[in-house]
Design a protein that fits this description.
With 316 residues, this protein is of the alpha+beta class. The protein contains eight helices and eleven strands. It has helices at residues 6-10, 18-32, 42-56, 59-66, 105-111, 141-146, 231-236, 292-304; strands at residues 133-139, 148-159, 165-176, 185-188, 204-210, 217-219, 222-229, 238-242, 249-253, 262-265, 278-284. A hairpin with a 6-residue loop joins strand 8 (238-242) and strand 9 (249-253). It is elongated and about 85 Å long.
Length: 316
């Protein structure tokens, strides 16, 4: 996937006001509209303009796009940085310019497939509930096991009096419930946009994501990790100590355990009803032959044991 420089497409500076963006689009749209311009590249250029304007005219989409930074070049191979949108607060306005199906993979990767449009009310006598806001938050896996209260900084776009788009920060103390799952939403009532007239404020929905853990992998409520095991522990069986998100426990390695075998610790996954399980996947680790005695042991094993790891391949 290639990076798209929407500012370059529109021919405006990165600090252009919203009015400057609008004027640039109107000028270029007239120039490249297929009904006016019959050149071969005009239709494609018109589609690019529609996509760029969809982003830059919307303060939320524009502020999110700006978070990617200015070092990217048009046509450069692009993959969004991990959690690039964490803590970014948005209300989810829909497509208002052009056909969503004509937008690029780059656009869809950043903004998804929104379908619902916004409504604007100007009458002071109208009463309407404020729009809901959404934000992605990243927590540690241990927070899901223990539950906690976190101080989170959220950034929401705003347009200043001169028409420039910036970000306004606010700090919220958020209770992370015990047993929360990846992708689950935490609702904060009344923390969305203010209502109109006597309408109540909208809510804020925080979508939970786990920060990558150096040891554990998460699948629903189940937790997986690789368990290094010595050859003699795998062959003869052993009782060893293993880490879990809630502390060290004792685990039995059955005799004859092969590499890749999964051992289950029931109920040691993310808490819930029922709780998830913890799976340890055996990884057999060979000691190095880095001393005369260790080399001698390996030589004795080669001489004494009739073992051919390639027997199943038909190779003797």
């Amino acid at each position: 996937m290639k990076f798209k420089d929407y500012y370059d497409v529109m021919g405006v500076a990165r600090d252009a006001t919203q009015d400057e963006v609008k004027r640039a689009y109107r000028k270029l749209a007239r120039k490249y509209h297929p009904d006016v311009n019959k050149e071969t590249e005009a239709e494609e250029r018109f589609k690019e303009l529609g996509e760029a304007y969809e982003v830059l005219k919307d303060p939320e989409k524009r502020a999110a796009y700006d978070q990617l930074g200015s070092d990217w070049k048009a046509g450069q191979d692009f993959k969004p940085p991990p959690d690039w949108d964490a803590g970014f607060e948005f209300s989810g306005g829909g497509y208002t310019q052009g056909d969503a199906s004509s937008f690029s993979d780059f656009f869809e990767t950043l903004y998804g497939k929104e379908t619902s449009g916004r409504r604007y009310y100007r009458s002071h006598d109208f009463h309407a509930r404020g729009s809901d806001h959404h934000a992605k938050i990243v927590i540690d896996l241990k927070d899901a096991f223990e539950g906690t209260t976190r101080s989170l900084t959220l950034r929401a776009p705003q347009v200043d009096t001169e028409g420039h788009v910036g970000l306004k920060e606010r700090i919220l103390n958020v209770k992370i419930p015990k047993g929360v799952l990846e992708g689950q939403h935490i609702r904060l009532a009344g923390q969305g946009s203010p209502g109109l007239g006597k309408g109540g404020a909208g809510d804020l929905y925080l979508e939970v994501h786990f920060r990558p853990d150096p040891l554990y992998r998460v699948s629903g409520r189940d937790i997986y990790f690789d368990l290094p095991v010595a050859p003699w522990e795998a062959a003869l069986g052993a009782r060893i100590k293993v880490p879990t998100p809630r502390g060290t426990v004792s685990m039995k390695i059955p005799p004859g355990s092969a590499g890749g075998r999964k051992l289950r610790l029931k109920g040691r996954g993310i808490p819930g009803k029922p709780a998830g399980d913890l799976f340890a996947q055996i990884q057999i680790v060979l000691p190095k032959a880095d001393s005369p005695r260790s080399k001698e042991i390996y030589e004795e094993m080669a001489a004494e044991m009739t073992f051919n790891p390639r027997a199943s391949m038909g190779v003797s």
